[in-house]
Predict the 3D structure of the following.
Amino acid sequence: MNNSHRNLKDDFAELTRHLPRLPGIGLGLLIPLALLILWGGFTSFYTVQPEQQAVVKRFGAVVAITDPGLHFKLPFGIDRIQRVASARVLKQEFGFRTVGQRGNEASRYSSQDFTGESAMLTGDLNVINVEWVVQYRIQDPIKYLYQQREPDTTLRDISESVMRRVVGNRLGSEVLTVGRVEIAQLARKEIQEIMDRYDSGLHIITVELQDVVPPQAVRPAFNEVNEARQERERMINEATKRANQQIPRAEGEAQRLIAEAEGYATERVNRAYGETARFRAMLEEYQNVPEVTRSRLYLEAMGDLLPKVGQVLMVQDDQVGPLPLMNIRDARQEAK
């Protein structure tokens, strides 16, 4: 830019050396005219960066929105430009502030106390510190610039109000553990709805809970309570696991016993039916030929008893030694 100014001054000096030769044009009139031309040239174009959009106003009225690149406009302040970073993801931090980051180092945070933003009361009257980040983008530059006086401040106030209400409707244990994702999603939805009603031109990308902890003064007691709850949950889980193992086993054992009892009952009933049928058949044969049936039954009974008798001895009064009546035992051994 300095080189261009130097070149313009040289050209202007070269032009003024020849001006006295031109009739009717004075030097006092030519200098303001040249300055006016230069001013018009410098104010007739503008540049928009890749992450920006430019709102062009002519006499205070918006006439165009231009995208990144080099553009021309009416000079002399007729067209004025307001640049808006519409492609950049902006964020607002609550409960903490990021100071900066150097290279690959971890982010550095401010040591200032922001508990006034993060301290909240839960539904069970517990106080916890909630730190969160709201990421958003400017969706409509015109609405962002002219619909509200301070849209960023409005977004900050609405975000804090919505987060306090959402956390206040939850239990402290839920906020600290399983409810964090649901709280962030619900807060993002409600913040977006409110900003849409205000017609602010902002789009809420995400709401992220960074750190949810109890206050420092009650943190040891809170940790003890959490440990007790975790121990209780562990014991409940172990009891449930054991119940899930024992109950199916007991039910299976009961089913097995029931099946065995039913099988035994069926066997006994069928055996009783069979004995009854055999007895009835035998009775019918006995009624037809009683003598033959009686003899057959006697012989069958003796055939079953005699092998079990062994040796039979008969002793008379006038005899000294016993007399063998039947040598059944020896006959049974010979048969074997």
User: Anything to note?
Assistant: Residues 219-288 form the longest helix (70 residues). The chain has a mean pLDDT of 82.
